[in-house]
Write a structure and sequence with these properties.
two-stranded antiparallel ribbon; mainly alpha; single chain; globular; about 160 residues
């Protein structure tokens, strides 16, 4: 799933508006530090993650399993913009920790479906609510057009960082 990096413009200087955006990014960094994340995580989920050596990349899978139906490993790879082997490794770690469950797809026995283990659902819901509160408050102040632009910008940034 990895995209080839696009050709960079040599020596291009950022505009004043771009510098303003870049200046905001480090202000978000403390929110993503391990201690902050750890303190927001319910004990059962934190213990499972730490005991099994799971990383934030493993944690990135979980919100995708919380909101909808079970997903295939391929679905997870596409949503996270990672390779199939990487998604498989992430699911494997979460499965060994008991946080996710793998099961046969009744519609296609060759496919494996991944779902959140029900015992971890309440802890994950609590954690997600705690983590997204500042973002949701920020989004409330944006118009639908601004929200779409925000999503498009973040998505493009993620793709660039991962390529």
């Amino acid at each position: 799933m990895r995209q080839e990096p696009r050709e960079r413009k040599a020596g291009r200087r950022p505009t004043a508006e771009e510098i303003e955006v870049v200046g905001l990014v480090p202000l978000l960094e403390p929110f993503y530090r391990g201690a902050v994340v750890r303190d927001l995580m319910p004990e059962a989920l934190r213990d499972a993650m730490e005991t099994h050596g799971l990383t934030p990349r493993h944690g990135a899978v979980l919100p995708h399993l919380l909101a909808g139906p079970p997903l295939t490993v391929g679905d997870i790879a596409r949503r996270l913009h990672v390779s199939l082997p990487t998604a498989s490794e992430l699911v494997g770690g979460l499965s060994r920790a008991g946080i996710v469950v793998r099961g046969e797809d009744p519609a296609n026995r060759r496919r494996v479906l991944v779902s959140l283990a029900e015992e971890y659902r309440p802890a994950l819901e609590t954690f997600i609510v705690r983590r997204v509160e500042p973002l949701l408050r920020a989004l409330e102040g944006l118009s639908p057009v601004e929200r779409a632009g925000f999503l498009a910008g973040l998505t493009a940034w993620v793709r660039e960082v991962q390529s």
